[in-house]
Amino acid sequence: MKPHHCSPTLALLLGILGLAGLSTAHAADPLAEVIGALRIEAPNQNSCSIVANGEGTSIFTRDCGNDRSQITLDQMPSTSRILISSLDCSESVSDHQDWWVTLETTARQTSTLPLSVDAIVKKTEAWLANPADPYVAPYVRIVNGQIRKTSGQARCAAVTLPVSSPEKKKNSFLFHAEPSQEAVEQNGMYHGTCKYGVMMRIYSKDPYDFSFQCLSYIDGENNRYVPYKYSGYFYFNSDTKPLSCPKDMAIYKLRIGVSKNPSYFRCVSYKHPVTGAILHLERNNYEQRYINRNGHHMLCENRNQAGPEVLVSEPNNVITGYDIEKNTQQIQCSTYSNPSQ
């Protein structure tokens, strides 16, 4: 397979973005080399760039810390989906998440000037009331969303690239983030359990309390994978070596104990609801780096796109191990792929 070559615009986006040109559509063979980039930024503040590469790839980033956000698209193929939200990239609103919007590109390759997130949210609110004009920019249209209240801050963004054939779509996985949840405190212990799916992100508020987010396994035809087998309990403390789930399993339950109360996690494997095929997880565990600041996001990180305090996800990765040492939590991750038959 020949390597991907970035356009000058894309190359700039990965470094210091030079803004030029109106929204453009470029003639190209569709999906010949599927790559697209998204940048979240605000004037004189942090910026986050994410690059998705490969048919059907989903990738997301969390929390650039900007007060007012803009997004810039570069070389997005036709029918790419861009999900932005005020908190966690889930398709839901709550006391914590004010809004979410899904955009879709309609040209073979679409690039834009910076687009105001506040304007996109307000346009979506108007579109939901009267879906006459869905476009927020040339070749970029609204396809779904919910608005509880408007704000211009995008704390999460996800990009999903298209696939070129029905067979590849069938074998792909859709990015489906469940709403963020708070751990429940009970008798000096903090509990978190995924109702659907497995953990993809943990936010450590202090050595014990945490919030978390789960990822549902859904195939290209919207079939939700179902639990297959559950593991036993993996107990750990600051003296325990890093622990990992058994083969083809990922963490769905986590308990952090205070003082002498034991901490543990449990794992689960998943199977396809129709074929019964078991979802496979590669044994490529690696530890998430620790960022020392107030609160600590732990997600399966694409280390090639890492910023000083910015985390960009590795596609198709979930949490499969946990390590705690001197009150610093770190996770281990593995890649899920097409089910083994």
Describe this structure in words.
The protein contains three helices and 31 strands. The protein has 341 residues and is mainly β. The chain has two domains: 8-164, no CATH class; 181-340, no CATH class. The strands form seven sheets. Strands 11-12-8-7-13-4-29 form a seven-stranded antiparallel sheet. Strands 16, 17, 21, 22, 24 and 25 form a six-stranded antiparallel sheet that branches. A hairpin with a 5-residue loop joins β18 and β19 (210-215). The longest helix is centred in the middle third of the chain and has 13 residues, at 117-129. The radius of gyration is 20 Å and the shape is globular. The model is unreliable at 1-32 (pLDDT under 50).
Spans of at least 5 consecutive residues with low confidence: 1-32
Strand-residue proportion: 35-45%
Q: In whole angstroms, how far apart are the ends?
A: 26 Å
* Major sheet characteristics: 7 strands, antiparallel
Strand count: 31
Helical content (DSSP H or I, runs of 4+)? under 10%
Mean pLDDT: 81
Determine the structural class based on helices, strands and strand pairing: mainly beta
Major beta sheet, strand line-up: 11-12-8-7-13-4-29
Total of helices: 3
- Choose one word for the global shape: globular
Our Rg estimate from Cα atoms comes to: 20 Å
> How many discrete domains?
2
